[in-house]
Amino acid sequence: MELEIRVYPDPVLRKRAEPIPKITDEIRALADQMVETLVKRVGYGLAAPQVGVLKRLIVVDVEDELYMVANPEIVEAGEERVLGVEGCLSIPGVEAEVERAYRVRVRGLTMDGEEVEIEAEGLLARVFQHEIDHLDGVLFIDHLGRAKRLQLLKEYERLRHSPQARSQGKEKEREKEGVVI
Ligand SMILES: [Zn+2]
Question: Does residue 18 have an active-site annotation?
Answer without folding.
Answer: no
